[in-house]
């Protein structure tokens, strides 16, 4: 059964969320969870052929899906690690270490490179922007380069890791909704975005080639405080279970924090708790979205979308472009790349299975194109935060957001020019 009306809850969410943002001129005035709860209520009012108990059974089955439960638990573990490593001084040491080893005459390029490393390590573009924005302001003042160029480099670096990090909520959501391993998604994703990162470096080198900035202040750092990031990154890449990696990283962060006296012993549980609480919103939203998607699917909405997209798909390349377009549109509508992935994930999974797209490839496309949207939206949290911290407007920063644009170009080129591989009996040939 396929019915367009089954998509009404998603439409209600978009109208309420986007409408409130437009009317109030603030896309974060309406909490996303409130809009989703209203959408869930609408979903419950649909399909009178199902009793309330049957609808509860439907959403319980959806929320109880192994991937949803695993994703939510990983969110919480990632929050614990982030809280612990930040309190232990990991962010400050990483920033200072990067600025210390990079030549001062390539300071703007350094902002991008350091932003890449920090965002991959922290798994958060927002945290990266908050950490590097004050440094970008200082570099702008001392080099004479426009503030927009410096903060643009920061946002570009932040979006690099938001897309690639093993502990980014977008990576977690993409991997779990598509059913692939994190290390496999990372490798596939990295190959796609590497050309974009290289070209971005070259562009920043060119437009800041006359820089004569010299770092005069003393930048203190402790390599031990950077160690937890490295352990988590390496552990995830070699295939250690993500829970083991994150819990181990949290423990090491706490030991380093206490050992370097940057964290008091009495505060260790508090910082972990604060980190976990920071992931509550996305965890609860993921659960509610799973409920909505379950009812929409039961009422034929998912099948309707699949049939609609299928009309314009011809082969694997078309399927990949369809997943990319779906991801970009949903991110533009929600202004939250993780939420967009959670919403698009079930549809992308159906498309990838029907047209033989590898799970790691569909996960990469979901993550890449929602990050493209998030890195360019003037009403997205990343640009709003960067603008607030530097007294700029998002539109002043946007001309220097080379990386998200190049990331989209690189991904589309990979789709168009990659060789088609058909699957026979589950084996690539």
Which tags fit this structure?
mainly alpha, 1% strand, single chain, two-stranded antiparallel sheet, 429 residues
- Please report the number of helical segments: 21
Would you report the number of β strands?
A: 2
**Topology as H/E string?**
HHHHHHHHHHHHHHHHHHHHHEE
Structural class: mainly alpha
Instruction: Evaluate the radius of gyration.
Output: 22 Å
Unreliable spans? 421-429
- Widest sheet, order of strands: 1-2
Looking at the chains present, what oligomeric state does this protein adopt?
Answer: single chain
- What portion of residues belong to β-strands? under 5%
In words, what does this structure look like?
This protein is mostly helical and 429 residues long. The chain has one domain. The protein is built from 21 helices and 2 strands. It has helices spanning 8-24, 32-45, 52-63, 66-87, 90-101, 107-122, 125-143, 147-164, 169-178, 182-207, 223-237, 242-259, 268-277, 280-298, 301-311, 315-334, 337-355, 359-376, 381-390, 394-397, 402-417; strands spanning 423-424, 427-428. It has a two-stranded antiparallel sheet. A hairpin with a 2-residue loop joins strand 1 (423-424) and strand 2. The chain is globular. The relative contact order is 0.15.
Write the layout of secondary structure elements.
Elements: H1 8-24, H2 32-45, H3 52-63, H4 66-87, H5 90-101, H6 107-122, H7 125-143, H8 147-164, H9 169-178, H10 182-207, H11 223-237, H12 242-259, H13 268-277, H14 280-298, H15 301-311, H16 315-334, H17 337-355, H18 359-376, H19 381-390, H20 394-397, H21 402-417, E1 423-424, E2 427-428
Antiparallel strand pairs: 1-2
């Amino acid at each position: 059964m396929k019915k367009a009306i089954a998509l009404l809850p998603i439409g209600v969410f978009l109208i309420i969320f986007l409408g409130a943002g437009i009317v109030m001129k603030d896309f974060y005035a309406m909490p996303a969870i409130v809009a989703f709860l209203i959408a869930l209520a609408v979903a419950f009012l649909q399909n009178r052929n199902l009793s309330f108990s049957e609808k509860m059974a439907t959403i319980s089955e959806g929320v109880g899906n192994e991937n949803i439960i695993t994703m939510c638990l990983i969110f919480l573990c990632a929050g614990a690690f982030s809280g612990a490593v930040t309190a232990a001084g990991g962010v400050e040491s990483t920033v200072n270490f990067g600025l210390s080893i990079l030549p001062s005459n390539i300071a703007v390029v350094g902002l991008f490179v350091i932003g890449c490393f920090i965002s991959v390590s922290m798994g958060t573009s927002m945290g990266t922007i908050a950490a590097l924005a004050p440094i970008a302001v200082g570099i702008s003042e001392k080099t004479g380069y426009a503030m927009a160029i410096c903060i643009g480099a920061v946002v570009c670096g932040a979006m690099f890791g938001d897309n690639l990090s093993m502990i980014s909520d977008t990576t977690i959501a993409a991997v779990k909704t598509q059913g692939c391993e994190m290390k496999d998604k990372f490798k596939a994703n990295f190959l796609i975005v590497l050309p974009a990162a290289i070209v971005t470096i070259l562009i920043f080198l060119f437009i800041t080639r006359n820089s004569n900035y010299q770092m005069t202040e003393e930048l203190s750092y402790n390599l031990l405080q950077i160690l937890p990031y490295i352990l988590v990154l390496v552990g995830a890449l070699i295939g250690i279970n993500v829970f083991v990696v994150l819990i181990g990283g949290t423990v090491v962060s706490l030991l380093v924090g206490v050992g370097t006296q940057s964290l008091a012993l009495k505060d260790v549980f508090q910082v972990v708790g604060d980190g976990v609480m920071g992931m509550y919103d996305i965890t609860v939203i993921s659960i509610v979205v799973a409920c909505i998607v379950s009812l929409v699917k039961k009422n034929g909405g998912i099948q309707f979308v699949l049939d609609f997209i299928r009309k314009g798909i011809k082969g694997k390349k078309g399927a990949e472009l369809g997943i990319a377009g779906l991801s970009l549109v949903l991110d533009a509508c929600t202004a939250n790349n993780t939420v967009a992935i959670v919403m698009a994930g079930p549809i992308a999974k159906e498309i990838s299975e029907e047209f033989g797209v590898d799970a790691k490839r569909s996960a990469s496309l979901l993550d890449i194109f929602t990050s493209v949207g998030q890195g360019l939206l003037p009403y997205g949290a990343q640009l709003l935060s960067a603008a607030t911290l530097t007294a700029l407007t998002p539109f002043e920063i946007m001309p220097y957001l080379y990386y998200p644009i190049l990331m989209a170009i690189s991904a589309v080129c990979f789709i168009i020019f990659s060789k088609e591989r058909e699957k026979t009996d589950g084996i690539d040939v």
